Structures are given as structure tokens and as C-alpha cells.
Amino acid sequence: MPPASILVAEDQTDIRDLLVLNLKGAGYDVHAVADGPSALASQAERASDLLILDLMMPGLDGLEVCKALRARGRSAPILMLTAKSTELDRVLGLELGADDYLTKPFSLAELLARVKALLRRAELLRAAQADARDRTEAIRNGDLEIWPAKRQVRIAGRTVEFTALEFDLLLHFANHPGRVFSRAQLLDAVWGYTHDGYEHTVTTHINRLRSKLEADPMRPEVILTVRGAGYKMREAPR
Amino acid sequence: MSVRLKIALTILATGVVTALLVIATVLMAFQRFEREVTFQRASAFLMRVSMTYADVLEQWRRQPGPAFNAWLRNLVLYEPDTQLYVLAPDGTVLASSGQARLAPGFRVSIGPVLATMKLAREHPGRTPFVMGDDPERMDADAVVAAEPLGERRSAEPSGYLYLVAHRDSGARWEALRSSFAVPSLVLIALIVAFASVLAMLVIASITRPLQRLTAAVSTLSERGLEAGSTADAAMLLPRAGGDELGRLTAAFEMMLATVRRQWDALRGLDRFRREGVSNLSHDLRSPLTATAACLETLDARWTADEARAQDRALLEVALRNTRNAARLVQSLGDLAKLDEPEFRLNAVLVDVDELLGDIRLRFAERAAQRGIALRTEGPAADAQALHAMVDVELFERAIANLVDNALKFCPRGATVTLSARRAEGGVEVCVHDDGPGIDATELPHLFDRYFRGRSSVAPATGEGGQGLGLAIVKRIVDLHGGKVAATSAPGAGTRITWLLPARGTSFA
């Protein structure tokens, strides 16, 4: 199996060179560009397995590159580098299509860990999607029906809209009813992150899931809290 | 009581008093007029009697008693409310036309008798009136007239003819009411009411600018000097006229303009400072990233090289310091972001207790490594869940900073407890440790920016050691409209309490 290919788009030469040096050192096939348009051109030509984009770049910035790539339907994971913490929510809301982000200053070890996690997650996702495509049957839990292939959820026969991440989180719970997951485990399994300080995203998403799933989100009955351990989905009632 | 009401009441009271005085004066004038008319009529009547019957006294002497009395009664037959008496020179009633039986030797005071004759003599035709005794009703005076009897030229009359015109006061009131008083009373009341309404309109026009001025001032005090409120207050201001209120308004407007100018200047300065910090933090990120990445690369390369062991030790110092600087830069940037007036919480309703459990889980490994027991103490299992509106990310960051601090400063074997309970007006979240505690002199400054507390303890890495961790906590608490307080005693641990307002309410 050939090494994974990575596209680095970063306008600051020092950082770009260091990234290339270390990613090559870690055994990846690295290609680097200095601005947004070149990143788009390169991706069209080479179709790298993973992109590392700087948020602030001349020409097209990272978000715009992200949007353009998503519009073309490319599914390679994107790791966004940003110096602007104010943009985090938007980047991370994934409405713009980034899969993960790192704020400058970051450590190289962390960057390499994220790259590894993202590639692994992309692999898992491909497998899961292949798996889901084959699963035309619904996962049922009480009046909850989840159709993995169609990515559709019905509650008591009524279709409810979920964002991609909410759906992935729900599917993860539904695939393992009764099993308890800590926030860190969910972050790893669903988001593909392995780092500390981001668990609140899980809380936020569980909150949103509950507001859509539960009759009374204040007294959840589907996604249950196990104090001191984490969260689980109720076991399907017989 | 508002000034407007006070003035209105004053005017109303003045009007009523005026009306009463006017009515009393009118009544008195009417009474006086009536008495004068009565007196003139009585005098003329007496004059006629004395002209016609020059020998009244003689007649009485001839046949005193009922027959004479009947003759007297005949004289006043056509004079209503009038009684005629014959008096001795000292005022003793000798004969009377009235039915009432008088005590023998009954006397009326002689003063008025003499006065009426003097009046008739000195001001003929233009007489006022005289009040004298009424033998039939001694409790009230009546209009009287008198005419001397006996020898016409003698200085000492041998008796008097005495006339008492006693109008029944009830009848008089009746006459007043029917002929004169009622329409005038209504008129007077109408005039007073009209004057009062007019006065109130005038007062309203005077106090309206005052009310608007008050509204403008209270708009300012409610909303502070935030953008827009000064313009709103200025809009509420009345048009400045030339009077005292107009000058007050103009002065207020000028003050508002001055305050607004200074406020804008301050805000501009504050924005400049915040943006400066934000930009600095931003600009420092890339060089710090590059530096740290270089050092890390070198470190990775030298790991395997035994000969580089000493160099690697130096490298580690450089890397550690670079990372501390990077964290500080990040905290500064975050604090600047939280300080932005445009910053809005992304608040959702969450179970605080559940969140604390998750935070404990997140720090469990680190606490275990440091030999510190980290536990949560929730409400009783049957208690209602503790829901509150919080920004999950910021709430977790604040609690994480507090836990981080506690873990840093507590020795092995200590216990750090996270707890939440329902408190008056909201939810109280508490981070408690039984560590070394904080000195009383440091406690009041704990949440101040750049205050480096716990100076006796070696500075730690991360936010806490840079004097920004607790400032960020404070800012997050403020953004949530809550309150944070720390209690501690050296050796007895530290308790930091965050009172989160219940849904939607604020303690501010």
C-alpha cells in the first residue's frame, strides 16, 4: 500500500517547510503550495488523501478552498490551521466542511497525531459507508428508526432532520445500544479526534440529539446519562 | 405625590376657599341689604304711626291691658313679621302687639333705641340699620326702629314706640335659595372648576418637559451609555425653550453630549487596547508556531543521538518556554475575544450536574497521576435535575481552569470536589479543595487580571500560572450573568462558588 498523500497549503514559508519536513519524516507523500488557488489546482490534479489548509491565505482563504472542494464533492478530510480562535465555531460547525482544526501555535506532535487520526477515520468512514450502503434495513429502538443507507431517522413514523455529525453520533449509539461511552471515546469514534479540551462539543451534540429525540429533553429516555461514566442509548425494548 | 398633583391640589383648594369666601361675602351683603330695607320700611312705618297717633301714650294710660294691645296689633296687621311695643323711657315694655306673655317689668336695652333715633335724625333717608333686643326671642337680635312718644319738643321723651322686624331666618334661607343663592352657587362652582382645569392645563404644559427630562434621565440610567441609548435619551428630551426648564434641558443636552464624547473616546481607547492585544496575540502565533516546530524537529532528530544529550536538555528548556509563551498568547487572545462587546454566549439548557460528571471524567487520569482524589458531589438521586442556561464550551473552560488550578496547587493525597446544588435564584456550582489554601491578602485579588496569586507556590504552566486563568473564569461568569466568590484559609483549602442564574434571569 503506497503512503498516504497529503497536500499542505500554507503561505508562511517557515511553517510550510517545517510541515513538509516533518510529514515527510513521518512517511507521508507530501505536496506543498502557498495559496488557495494552487491548492484547488493541485487537488484537482493529484487528489491527495488529506489536506492541511491555512485559514488565512492570499487569493482564496482556507474556508473558501474548503467550500469549493466540498462543492466538487471531494471527500478527502481537511485539517484547518488557524490563528483566529474566533473562527473556530464556524470551522468546527463543519458547515464549511473542515474535519478538524488546529489553532496556532500548535505542536508538531499534535499535528502528526491529528493527521494520523483523520486518515484512520477516513478509512473507517469509507468502510462504514460501504457497510451502511449494504444495510438497507433499519435499526429500530422503540419508536426510533434509523436507516443507515439513506441516512434517515424516523421517530414514531415521522422523519426528523439531523446534521451529518448528529447522525453519525446517533448511529454510533444505535449500533451499540446499552454500551456506555465516555465523551473522550465518542470524540474519538465519531469525530476522530484524540485530543483533550474538545469534549464540550460532545456535550453540545448530545444536547441537540436529545432535543430532537426526547419527549422531554430534561428527562432523557433514549440517550441516557451514566453518572461518572458517560452516555448510552437505552437497550431496544422488546 | 407628584409635583403636578401637588400644584393641582393647591389650586383646587385655593379655588374652593375663594368660592366659599365669595359666597359668604355675597350672603353677608344680601343680609345687610335686607336689613337696611327692613329698617327703612320700619322707620317709615313708625313715622307714619307717630304722625297719625300723637297720643299713643295717652291712650295707653287711659286703658292699658288687652284692649290697647289689640289696638297695637291692628296697627301692624298688614306688616308681616313685625311687632310693635310701647316702651317706658328706661326700656321697660309697657305694651306689646305680640302674643307672647312678657314678664312684668321686662326691659329691652335702651342703647339701640337711642341709636335708631339718632340715625334717623342725622342721616335721614340714608340710614344703615340698628340691631336691638327682640322681646319675643331674646337669643337673637333683630332689626329695630324706635320713635319717641310724648311731648314732641321735650328733650326727655316720656316713652318710645319700638318696632321689631324679625324675619324668620329659615324663611330668609328659603328666599335666598329660591331667588338668588342656587344659581349663583352653581355659577361660582363652575367658575372655580373652569379655573382649576385651566390651571391644570398650564401646569401640565410646565411639567411635561420635566417629565420628558425625567424619562430621558431614566433611560440613561437604565441602559447606561451603551451605543444608541444616548441618542434615544436625546430624542426624549423636550424642545429647549427660553425659560428655566428650557435652560435645564439645554444644559442636560450639553452634559449628554460631553459624556457621550468622553464615553466614545473611552470606548475607542478600549477597543484599540483590545484589538491591540488581539492582534498582538494573533501576530505572535505564527512565529511561535514556527519556533516550536523547529525545536520539536530538532528534538526528534536528536533523540537517538547520545552525543546530543546535553543539547537536548537545552532544547527542552527552549521548547517548554516557547510552549508557555504560546499558551499565554492564546489566553490573551481568548480573553480579548471574550471582552468584545459583540461577543454572545451560545447558551443552551443543560444538566449542570451531568456536565460536572463529564469534567471529572476528563480530569480523572491527570488527578490520579498527581495522587489527588477528584470526585463529584451531586444532588440526592431523587432530586430534580439541575438545569441551567450555559454556554457549554465556556462553562467547561471555566470549571476546567478551576480544576486545573486545584490540581496544580494541591499536594498528593488531597481531595478536589465538584458539586452543584440548587440555590436561591439559580444553581450554585462549587469547586472545593482541601489543599494549602490561599492567603487572605491574596483572596480579594484572586480574579483580577494579571494577578499572580499563590506566589509562594512555584508557577505552573498553563493559564493559571500566568494570572489569566481566573480572569478568564471571572469573565465567563460575568457573561453568564452570575457571581463568583472564593473563600479560603491557609491550610484549610479553597472553595470557589459560582452562582449561575436560573433560566433567563440575571443577578446583575
- Biggest sheet strand order of chain B reads 2-1-5-4-3
**What are the secondary-structure elements of chain B, in order, as H or E?**
HHHEEHEEEHHHHEHEEHEEHHEE
- SS elements, strand count of chain A: 11
What best-fitting shape of chain B do the alpha-carbon axes yield? rod-shaped
Based on Cα principal axes, name the global outline of chain A: elongated
- Distance N to C terminus of chain A: 46 Å
Major β-sheet strand ordering of chain A: 2-1-3-4-5
Strand content of chain A: 15-25%
> Major sheet of chain A, described briefly?
5 strands, parallel
Strand content of chain B: 5-15%
**How much helicity do the residues of chain B have?**
55-70%
* Mean of all residue-level pLDDT scores of chain A: 83
Description:
The complex is a heterodimer of chains A (238) and B (508). Chain A folds into two domains: 5-128, Response regulator (Rossmann fold, 3-Layer(aba) Sandwich), CATH 3.40.50.2300; 135-233, Winged helix-like DNA-binding domain superfamily/Winged helix DNA-binding domain (Arc Repressor Mutant, subunit A, Orthogonal Bundle), CATH 1.10.10.10. The N and C termini of chain A lie far apart (46 Å). Chain A is elongated, with a radius of gyration of 19 Å. In chain A, the strands form three sheets. Chain A has a five-stranded parallel beta sheet, sandwiched between helices. In chain A, strands 6-7-8-9 form a four-stranded antiparallel beta sheet, with helices on one face. In chain A, strands 10-11 form a two-stranded antiparallel ribbon. Chain A has helices at 13-25, 36-46, 62-71, 88-92, 108-134, 164-175, 183-191, 200-213, and strands spanning 5-9, 29-33, 50-54, 78-82, 100-103, 139-141, 144-147, 152-155, 158-160, 223-226, 230-233. Chain A contains eight helices and eleven strands. In chain A, a hairpin with a 2-residue loop joins strand 8 and strand 9 (158-160). Helix content of chain B is 56%, strand content 14%. Chain B has a five-stranded antiparallel beta sheet. Chain B has a five-stranded mixed beta sheet with strand order 7-9-10-12-11, covered by helices on one side. In chain B, helix 5 packs parallel to helix 7 and helix 7 packs antiparallel against helix 8.
